[in-house]
Design goal:
695 residues, alpha+beta, 9-stranded parallel β-sheet, 6-stranded antiparallel β-sheet, binds ligand MIG
Length: 695
């Protein structure tokens, strides 16, 4: 049961595809109060920079909900902290934020859907509003949930159902089918900021081939471009890009270039010139093209919220698809802003004023703050404008009101263009920034994590939340992006990520190279990848089915065993699809960990796709041992999976090789419906794609 409440005149985000009628009843569960009332009824805190209080005012509307001790909150998609979101304040304000730490409030995405369960009430909330929102899940007051909406124009959905999963499915149904990635996107992928030439890319392919390390894709980061200009490539270092993609294609390897949001200002650069000529860039207050600084220096932002500009920007991808490229990652689309020209001039002038003065505790830090504050300054969101056509009428919106739509609409631009260019072929596409609705156009990766054990754990918390908000094709930088990884961390991260659709090793230019062939003892890495490839038939099947059925791939134990208090507090294990539970080892110097089994399960310990053992364990807490060379997972009672072979590329996956593994109690007959298709066409409904297995 979905109830919709419209406030003022909301901006159409296209998040919800199946339109709902307005409810006339009072809003259930939530109390409406003003922002002022909310603050007067809260302990006062020092100004918290990350919550952008300046966006809130007299008009801001808040809703509160009193939580019971047992209330749990799940959702909010890509966010920091644990699986149960209680006890912190989260903000929807897409941000280029490399600090994925506990005291952060917003990362790159804004996913305004959450679920309240565990107490007397069970309901979901989706707030369709593309500007700044706070979700205080018990921060200002331990037992009070508050939704703080900076602007009075928005749509609120309250979703009721029989179970968490039922509510999520209803929500997913109205927001439309999730993007389905091609099969090759489920292979192992290698990235680096940046491979600097075609030959470096060839070297990665060669090393994987020589050492028997499975591989499906290699990534190009910003240095492949000519002076960081989108849709160009550096003729000196990547002059043979077409030959490169041809060579890779012969080995069934894909090349995946990055595209940044901002377009370099440079005479003679066609994207810049066309954008200016047709008014496709965001404007400043005076109607001039808004100037900011990002990688290439001065840039304009394509106004992807505008339909015409979106179509034009999407068409630009053809410069690369024409060269045989069939996958992209969209970056810096929060959008990330190093500086706006206006603010830079202001800061430079201020700084000159410090010259010759005696910088003391106040003035010194004021100066530092000015400089640091250039980056992603929220005031810059008030300095540019979008033009959207609504019911045939052009409307101008200041960026801060629609901020969270930018990455979504950039990715939509690309996907809509791909659908025009390749009506029956799936391309790989994922984005750093996103909003609910973008899940129909591409996947997401979780951005600049660190080579920290805690960031493996962060992914585990994020996976179910990201799924809940519609994103099925997802993953993080395996091994960690920033700082140096270690061999054991990489092994454990792979052992976990082999259950995650996007399994991409990516690292920053300032950190050590971390391709698997850089480490000693290839045997273990080779086997971990073989297990991954053997797992792809199950993983791909579960992911495509989740897209087709509006379902989750990753499910918290609390959703499956709501009356089991220990299961409800198990935040470091996950169900993966219908048959598997994982409990990855996410701490260093451990050869095992405690695992809670809410019911009898079968432990599978794999050293390779062919070398594994199984054992039935009773319900309860167990200390499960797994050396660095071993992947452990659990098959649920009366469930089964399909396993492929430990091949080296997804093109070698063949259903004739599939075997089954299951745990049948007292000879209960088991069955599993596996989805498998050619991996790139779009006739998902074809019944021939379903293979039934029994056990
Ligand atoms: O702020 O293109 O998250 O994956 O390597 C750095 C360079 C810009 C951020 C992306 C990261 C990528 C990097 N980009």
């Amino acid at each position: 049961m979905i109830k919709k409440f419209t406030f003022g005149t909301p901006i159409e985000t296209d998040a919800v595809l199946i339109k709902q009628p307005n409810s006339t009843i009072p809003i259930p569960y939530l109390n409406q109060i003003t922002y002022k009332e909310l603050l007067s009824n809260s302990i006062s805190r020092k100004k918290d920079n990350s919550t952008y209080e300046e966006f809130f005012n007299e008009d801001s509307i808040c809703f509160t909900y009193d939580m019971e001790d047992s209330t749990q909150i799940y959702g909010l998609g890509e966010q920091v902290r644990g699986m149960n979101k209680r006890g912190w304040i989260y903000q929807s304000c897409c941000k280029d934020n490399g600090d994925h730490i506990e005291t952060t409030s917003s990362l790159y995405a804004s996913h305004n859907f959450f679920l309240v369960c565990g107490g007397k009430d069970l309901f979901g909330v989706f707030l369709d509003f593309p500007g700044i929102v706070n979700f205080d899940m018990g921060y200002k007051k331990l037992d009070r949930l508050s939704i703080e909406i900076s602007n009075p124009n928005f749509t609120l959905y309250i979703i009721e159902g029989t179970s968490p999963r039922d509510i999520i499915k209803q929500f997913r149904h109205i927001i439309g089918r999730s993007y389905i990635a091609p099969l090759w996107a489920y292979g192992y992928q290698q990235s680096r900021y940046s491979y600097m030439s075609s030959d470096e890319v060839r070297e990665v392919a060669k090393k994987h081939e020589e050492l028997g390390l499975g591989l499906d894709a290699i990534y190009l980061d910003i240095d492949y471009m000519e002076r960081y200009k989108d849709f160009t490539y550096n003729k000196d270092t990547f002059g043979d890009l077409k030959e490169l993609t041809d060579e890779l294609q012969e080995k069934n390897l894909h090349l995946v270039p990055i595209i940044d949001a901002a377009v370099k200002i440079e005479d003679g650069y066609s994207v810049y010139e066309e954008g200016v000529a047709n008014n496709y860039f965001c404007k400043d207050e005076n109607g001039n093209d808004f100037v900011a600084g990002v990688w290439p220096g001065k840039v304009h932002f394509p106004d992807v919220l505008n339909e015409k500009a979106r179509e034009w920007f999407g068409n630009q991808y053809q410069a690369l698809t024409d060269l045989g490229i069939d996958g992209f990652w969209n970056d810096m689309n929060e959008p990330a802003i190093f500086y706006s020209e206006e603010n830079l001039n202001y800061v430079l002038e201020k700084i000159t004023g410090y010259k010759g003065t005696n910088l003391d505790i106040h003035s010194y830090f004021e100066m530092v703050r000015l400089v640091v504050g250039l980056l992603n300054n929220p005031d810059d969101y008030k300095r540019f404008y979008h033009k959207m056509t609504i019911n045939g009428e052009d409307k101008i919106f200041r960026h801060d009101l629609v901020h969270n739509l930018y990455g979504y609409f950039m990715t939509r631009a690309a996907k809509e263009a791909f659908d025009r260019m390749y009506p029956n072929k799936r391309l790989l596409l994922f984005s750093r920034s996103s909003y609910v609705g973008m899940h129909r156009y591409g996947g997401l990766w979780t951005g600049d994590n660190y080579s920290w054990w805690s960031h493996m754990k962060l992914l585990l918390s994020q996976l179910p939340a990201i799924n809940m908000c519609g994103f099925i094709y997802t993953g993080c930088d395996v091994g960690g992006f920033q700082d140096n990884t270690t061999k054991d961390l990489m092994m454990r991260w792979l052992a976990f990520s082999l259950f995650v659709p996007l399994m991409r090793n990516h690292s920053d230019c300032h950190s050590d190279f971390q391709e698997l062939y850089r480490f000693e003892n290839q045997e273990i890495f080779r086997n971990l990848l073989k297990i991954r490839y053997a797992m792809v038939p199950y993983l791909y099947s579960e992911c495509v089915k989740a897209c087709l059925n509006d379902d989750l791939v990753y499910c918290p134990l609390a959703f499956e065993w709501p009356n089991d208090s220990l299961a409800c507090e198990t935040y470091d294990q996950l169900l993966v699809g219908e048959s598997i539970m994982i409990a990855p080892i996410m701490e260093q110097n451990k050869t095992g960990r405690f695992v809670y089994l809410p019911e009898e399960m079968m432990q599978v310990s794999m050293k390779s796709d062919t070398d594994y053992s199984t054992k039935i364990l009773p319900a309860g807490v167990h200390y499960i041992h797994a050396d660095l060379d071993t992947v452990v997972f659990f098959i649920r009672k009366n469930h089964m999976i399909v396993l492929g072979k430990g091949v080296l590329n997804t093109s070698e996956i063949s259903p004739s090789d599939f075997t089954t593994l299951g745990f049948s109690k007292e000879n209960t007959p088991l069955s599993y419906t596996c989805y498998f298709d050619d991996g790139y066409s779009k006739d998902y409904e074809n019944p021939n794609h379903y293979i039934s297995y029994t056990f």
